[in-house]
Design goal:
Chain lengths: ~350, ~350, ~300
C-alpha cells in the first residue's frame, strides 16, 4: 500500500499540477456520486440529466459513469476512491454530505480533479459549485403574494439547514415586497424524499388555510395535490407542469448541464482550475419554468424581477434585512447580506411567526 | 413420485462445507445468465464482481472495513436469536452508541485532551448501546410488550435524535450551520492499521469479539444457558435458568456490541457525527447473523462475503455501467441461494412415492 | 368542524397502505410464518401497479398488477422458506433487497410519468353531509376495500373452519400435521395472500395517494406495517386501531408544526413511534400475565416427518 502511495505521488510530481496533454488524447473519464437513486425525479435526477447531456455533447471525448444511492456515511470515501481507482480523472460528488470524504480523497490523489456540490471545503484539486436557488424563491414570493387570496403560503421543508432557511426567507422577502402582511406556515417532514409524507404535509397546510404551496422537498406530490385541491403551487428541482397543469405558477429548475459542459471543456483543454461557482439566474444554473396560471400583470412583475436579479440590480437579501425581533441584521456585503451570511443562514426574518427548530 | 425433505439424524458436516460452494456455483450460473441477457459479457462481469476485489489489496482492506461493523453487530444479535430474543433494533443501538461515544469527542474537541479519549469513547459507546437496548428488554420482561415492535420503533427515534443533535446543540460552530459536528481530534480517531488505508483497529476488535463469543458459547455455562433457553425453554426453566434474566442479558450484550460498532464507525471512517452514519448496518447484520448460522466464525465469513458483494456490486456499477438496482437483485438472488442450500445441512432430499398423508415438497 | 373532517380524511388516506399490507401479514403470521419482506413486496407492487395503470389507463388493472407482483415475489419466499425450510427472518430480509432492486428496474422507464389517480366515491347529497359525508362516502375504492378486507379476514379467521385450521397451523404445526392438515400448503396460500395484500398496499401509493412513480417511494412503510401486526397482537380489528393511530399521530404532528409551535421537528416526527411503543406497553401491561399473544409456531420451519 505504501509503495502504491509513493508511486501515486511520483506520478503526480512528474505530471505536475497541470493535467494537460495525455488526458486530452484518450477519453476523459468523468465520474458522478449521487446521494439518491437516479429515479428520484428530483435532486439526483437533475444531476443525471446533466450527466447524460454532457455525454451526448462530448460523445467520444469523455466517458461518464455514476454511483447512485451512495450513503453519506462510511461508504462515501470508498465509493469516491473506487471511481479514482477505475481511472476517473474528474469526479463530481453531488451532495453536501460528501464534503469531508471528497476532501480526504482529493488530498490523497492530487492528480485527480474533484468538484463538490453545495459545500465549502476547497483544495488545489477540489472545486465547489452550487446554485443560488434563493434568487428564484424571491420571485416566487412576489408571485405568491399576488396570487394568494388567504395571504398564507404553505411551505414544505425538508430539514432546517441554511439552504432551506435562506429559501424560506427569500420567499418571504419577495412576498413582503408586494404585500407586507403575507404569512407563511412551515412543516418540516424530516425527509428529502417521501412522496406520501409530502402529500400529507401539503394537505395539512391547505387545511390550515394556505392557498399557495412551496416546497423544498423532491417529489411532485405537493404539486399534484394542489392541482386536485384547486390551489397554486411552485415546482421544485424540475418543471412540474405535467403534474400541476392548473396549479403550477412556476418552478425552480436545477440546470447543471451548462456548468458541467463548461467545466469539462476546461478539463479537456487542460485549463481546469479549482474555484467556487455559486451560480444563480444569471449563470442559468437556476432557471425559472414558464410563468403559468397567472394574469399578465403578475407575469410581467415576475419577468421584471427575474431580469433585475439576473442583471444584478436587485439582490433578494438587500439591506436592511430585519431579523425576527425587528432588529436589522448586520450588513456584511455592503448593500446586501454577504455570501457567508446566506450560506450559513440560521435565522428567520421578521414576519415569519414560527421558531426555527433546533437552532 | 415426489421429492421431499427428510431430516438428517445429525448435522452434516460435509454439507456444512459443501453447501456454500453449491450456492456460489448456482449464483455464478444465474449471474452469467443475467448478465448475458443484459448484453454484458458474462465471464468478464463475474470477474469484476467476485474475483477482482479479491485480488486487489485495496479492495480487500475495504471489504474488511465494511465487514467490521457487521461482524460486531451480528455476533451480538446471534446471542439474542439463539436465546429466542428478537432484537431487530440493532440499527438504533448502533446510532446511540455513535452518539454517546461521539459526545465525548465533541465535548473534548479542541481542549487538547490526552489519549484516554478514544478508549473512553469506546466504553461510552458500548454503554450507550446497552442502555438503549435495555428499553425493549425491560418492556418485554416487565410488561410483556413485544420486543420486535419496540426495538424496531426505537430505531426511528434514534435516527431523529441524532438528527436533532447534529442540526442543533452539537453543530460545528465553524461549519456554516451545516448539520455536522466538528471533525474529531486525532485522539478521538481510531488508529489505522496500515498507513494510507482505511483499515482500522476496529477490525482487530471485531476478531477479538468473535473469539470471545466462540469461547463463551462453546465453553461456558452462560453459553450453554443461552442455547438451552432458546432450544428448550421449558427444560431450561426446570434447570433453574431464568429466561427473563437472559432476555435482559442478551439484549445488553447485543446492544453494547452494536453501540461499540457505532462509535468505532464514526471514529474510524466518518470522523464526525452527521445525520447519516449508517448505511443500514443494523439491518444488514440480521442477515449476516443468520447467514453465519448464528455461529461466531460463520458470522465472520458471512460478513466478509456480504461485504464482497457490496464492493463487487459497486465495481460492476462503474465498469459495466449497470444500475445499482441490478446489483441489488443479484445480491437478493445470491442470498436466497445461500439460505436455500443451507437446508442440505439439516435435511436431505428423498424421492418418495406420494401417499396421501405426506405433505411434502413439490 | 371542517378542520376535523379534513384531518380525518388525511389520516385515512395516509393509513390505508399500512392497513392493506399489515392485513396480509397478519394472516401470514397467524399461519406461523414470519415474512419480513413486506417492504420489498410493497415496492414491487407499487412499480408494477404503476406500470400496469400507465400502460392500460386503468387503475383497476394497475391494482391487479400490484397484487400479482406482490404474490409472485412472495412465492419466491414461500419456495425457499417452506419448500426448503430456509430461515424465515433472513429470507424475508433478502426478499426486501430483491424487491427494492426489482422495483427500481421495473420502474426505471416510468420515472416522471403521471397517471390520473383513483377517483373518489361521490353520492349526490350523501357525500355532502357535513363532517362525516366525505369521510364515509367520499373515499377511493382502496379505502373501502381495505376495510372490507379486514372484515373478511376477521370472518375467515374466527367464523370459518378453514380459518380455524389456519390458526391451528400457526399455533402448533406438529399437532396440525398429526391431525392430517396440509401444513405447508396452508402456509403457502397464506404467504401468497400476504404478498398479494402487500402488493396492493404498495400499489395504492402510485395509484391513489401520489399518482406518479419514483423509486423507493414506499419509504419504509413495509416496516411500519410489520410493527403494526405485532401492535395489534395479531387481532384484525386492533390492526385498524393501530394503523389509524399511527397515521393519526403522523398527521396531527404535521398540523401542530404548521401552527408554528417551534418544537423541534425531530421530536414531533418521533411521536408516532413513541406513541406506538407506549400504547403497546400499556396494552401488554393491562393484559398482564396471560402470556404472549403471538402464534406459538411463528417463524419456525416445518418439515413433515413420517
Amino acid at each position: 500500500m505504501k509503495r502504491l502511495m509513493i508511486a501515486a505521488a511520483v506520478v503526480a510530481l512528474t505530471l505536475g499540477s497541470a493535467l494537460t496533454g495525455a488526458t486530452a488524447q484518450e477519453k476523459l473519464k468523468v465520474g458522478f456520486i449521487y446521494v439518491g437513486p437516479v429515479g428520484d425525479m428530483g435532486w439526483t435526477y437533475q444531476h443525471e440529466v446533466g450527466r447524460r447531456a454532457i455525454q451526448e455533447q462530448f460523445k467520444d471525448k469523455i466517458d461518464t459513469s455514476y454511483l447512485e444511492n451512495v450513503n453519506e456515511g462510511p461508504d462515501a470515501e470508498r465509493s469516491i476512491e473506487q471511481l479514482v481507482r477505475t481511472g476517473h480523472k474528474l469526479i463530481y460528488t453531488t451532495s453536501f454530505g460528501f464534503m469531508d470524504a471528497t476532501a480526504k480523497v482529493a488530498k490523497k490523489y492530487p492528480n485527480v480533479m474533484f468538484e463538490h456540490a453545495t459545500g465549502y471545503k476547497r483544495d488545489k484539486n477540489l472545486a465547489t459549485y452550487s446554485g443560488r436557488f434563493y434568487e428564484g424563491r424571491y420571485i416566487m414570493g412576489q408571485i405568491a403574494a399576488r396570487m394568494s387570496k388567504s395571504g398564507t403560503i404553505g411551505y414544505i421543508g425538508s430539514f432546517p439547514i441554511p439552504e432551506v432557511v435562506s429559501g424560506v426567507n427569500a420567499m418571504m422577502l419577495g412576498a413582503q415586497s408586494v404585500r407586507p402582511d403575507m404569512k407563511v406556515k412551515i412543516i418540516w417532514v424530516n425527509a428529502w424524499y417521501d412522496p406520501g409524507k409530502e402529500a400529507a404535509a401539503a394537505r395539512a397546510l391547505a387545511d390550515q388555510g394556505a392557498d399557495v404551496l412551496a416546497q423544498h422537498t423532491d417529489s411532485a406530490a405537493a404539486m399534484q395535490f394542489a392541482n386536485e385541491r384547486g390551489i397554486f403551487a411552485f415546482g421544485q428541482d424540475s418543471d412540474q407542469i405535467k403534474f400541476g397543469p392548473k396549479a403550477q405558477l412556476t418552478a425552480i429548475v436545477n440546470n447543471w448541464t451548462p456548468y458541467y459542459a463548461e467545466r469539462i471543456k476546461l478539463a479537456l483543454e487542460g485549463k481546469w482550475a479549482t474555484g467556487d461557482v455559486w451560480g444563480g439566474l444569471n449563470s442559468k444554473i437556476v432557471q425559472m419554468a414558464p410563468y403559468t396560471n397567472m394574469p399578465d400583470e403578475v407575469k410581467k412583475l415576475a419577468t421584471e424581477t427575474e431580469g433585475a436579479i439576473s442583471s444584478g440590480t436587485l439582490h433578494p437579501f438587500k439591506c436592511p434585512v430585519l431579523a425576527q425581533d425587528g432588529k436589522p441584521v448586520e450588513c456584511k456585503g455592503g448593500t446586501h447580506l454577504d455570501d457567508g451570511q446566506i450560506l450559513g443562514m440560521n435565522f428567520y426574518i421578521k414576519g415569519i411567526d414560527d421558531k426555527l427548530p433546533g437552532m | 413420485m415426489r421429492l421431499a425433505l427428510e431430516r438428517r439424524a445429525e448435522r452434516s458436516i460435509a454439507m456444512a462445507l459443501v453447501s456454500p460452494l453449491i450456492a456460489v456455483a448456482l449464483t455464478l450460473a444465474t449471474g452469467a445468465l443475467l448478465f448475458a441477457l443484459l448484453g454484458k459479457p458474462p465471464v468478464e462481469a463475474l470477474k469484476i464482481y467476485f474475483f477482482e476485489p479479491l485480488t486487489d489489496p485495496w479492495a480487500l482492506q475495504e471489504i474488511a472495513v465494511k465487514a467490521t461493523p457487521l461482524v460486531l453487530i451480528a455476533v451480538g444479535l446471534s446471542l439474542c436469536y439463539l436465546a429466542n430474543v428478537w432484537n431487530i433494533g440493532a440499527e438504533g443501538q448502533f446510532l446511540i452508541g455513535a452518539i454517546t461515544g461521539g459526545w465525548l469527542a465533541v465535548a473534548t474537541h479542541g481542549t487538547g485532551a490526552g489519549y484516554w479519549v478514544l478508549p473512553a469513547m469506546l466504553v461510552l459507546g458500548a454503554l450507550g448501546g446497552a442502555a438503549y437496548a435495555l428499553v425493549p428488554a425491560v418492556f418485554r420482561v416487565r410488561f410483556g410488550a413485544s420486543e420486535i415492535l419496540t426495538s424496531l420503533m426505537l430505531v426511528y427515534v434514534a435516527e431523529l435524535l441524532l438528527d436533532y443533535l447534529v442540526r442543533g446543540p452539537w453543530r460545528d460552530p465553524k461549519g456554516f450551520n451545516f448539520p455536522t459536528t466538528a471533525e474529531f481530534d486525532a485522539v478521538a480517531a481510531m488508529p489505522t492499521l496500515i498507513e494510507g488505508s482505511r483499515l482500522h483497529l476496529g477490525a482487530i476488535i471485531a476478531l477479538l469479539v468473535v473469539a470471545w463469543a466462540t469461547v463463551m458459547l462453546g465453553r461456558t455455562l452462560k453459553g450453554f444457558e443461552i442455547k438451552l433457553v432458546g432450544a428448550a425453554p421449558r427444560a431450561a426453566r426446570f434447570g433453574g435458568f431464568s429466561d427473563k434474566w437472559l432476555t435482559v442479558v442478551t439484549f445488553l450484550i447485543s446492544g453494547a456490541l452494536a453501540g461499540l460498532a457505532g462509535v468505532i464507525e464514526v471514529s474510524a471512517t466518518v470522523n464526525h457525527l452527521q445525520p447519516n452514519i449508517s448505511p443500514g448496518y443494523g439491518f444488514t447484520a440480521i442477515i449476516v447473523a443468520f447467514l453465519g448460522r448464528l455461529n461466531p466464525a460463520g458470522i465472520l465469513v458471512a460478513a466478509l462475503f456480504l461485504a464482497l458483494t457490496f464492493i463487487g456490486g459497486e465495481s460492476a456499477q462503474i465498469s459495466l455501467k449497470v444500475p445499482l438496482d441490478l446489483t441489488k437483485v443479484f445480491q437478493g438472488i445470491l442470498l436466497f441461494y445461500v439460505l436455500a442450500c443451507d437446508t442440505l445441512i439439516l435435511y436431505r432430499f428423498r424421492l418418495l412415492p406420494a401417499p396421501k398423508a405426506v405433505h411434502g415438497i413439490r | 368542524m371542517e378542520f376535523v373532517e379534513a384531518v380525518l380524511l388525511t389520516v385515512i388516506t395516509a393509513s390505508t397502505p399500512l392497513l392493506l399490507a399489515a392485513s396480509g401479514e397478519l394472516v401470514v403470521e397467524r399461519a406461523g410464518v414470519l415474512n419480513l419482506g413486506v417492504e420489498g413486496m410493497m415496492i414491487v407492487g407499487g412499480a408494477c401497479g404503476f406500470a400496469g395503470a400507465y400502460l392500460t389507463g386503468s387503475i383497476a388493472i394497475g391494482a391487479l398488477c400490484g397484487i400479482l407482483a406482490g404474490a409472485a415475489l412472495s412465492a419466491v419466499f414461500a419456495a425457499v422458506t417452506l419448500g426448503l425450510a430456509a430461515n424465515q427472518v433472513a429470507s424475508g430480509l433478502a426478499l426486501t433487497i430483491l424487491g427494492v432492486g426489482l422495483s427500481g428496474l421495473i420502474g426505471a422507464g416510468y420515472v416522471g410519468q403521471k397517471i390520473d389517480g383513483a377517483g373518489h366515491l361521490y353520492i349526490p347529497y350523501v357525500t355532502d353531509i357535513p363532517l362525516i359525508g366525505k369521510v364515509i362516502f367520499g373515499e377511493n375504492a382502496f379505502v373501502y376495500f381495505s376495510i372490507a378486507l379486514l372484515i373478511g379476514i376477521w370472518y375467515f379467521l374466527y367464523r370459518t373452519r378453514a380459518g380455524l385450521i389456519l390458526r391451528a397451523v400457526g399455533d402448533n404445526h406438529a399437532s396440525a400435521h398429526a391431525l392430517g392438515y396440509p401444513v405447508l400448503r396452508i402456509r403457502m396460500l397464506a404467504v401468497l395472500f400476504g404478498g398479494a395484500c402487500a402488493g396492493l398496499g404498495g400499489a395504492y401509493l402510485p395509484l391513489a395517494y401520489t399518482p406518479f412513480w419514483v423509486s423507493g417511494m414506499t419509504a419504509g412503510r413495509g416496516w411500519i406495517a410489520l410493527a403494526l401486526v405485532v401492535f395489534a397482537s395479531w387481532l384484525p380489528f386492533r390492526l385498524m386501531v393501530g394503523a389509524y393511530l399511527f397515521g393519526g399521530i403522523t398527521i396531527l404532528q404535521l398540523h401542530a408544526q404548521a401552527t408554528g409551535l417551534g418544537i423541534p421537528s425531530q421530536l414531533m416526527s418521533s411521536l408516532p413511534y413513541l406513541a406506538t411503543i407506549l400504547v403497546l406497553v400499556a396494552i401488554s401491561w393491562v393484559r398482564g400475565r396471560r402470556g404472549s399473544p403471538a402464534p406459538a409456531s411463528l417463524g419456525l420451519a416445518f418439515v413433515p416427518d413420517r
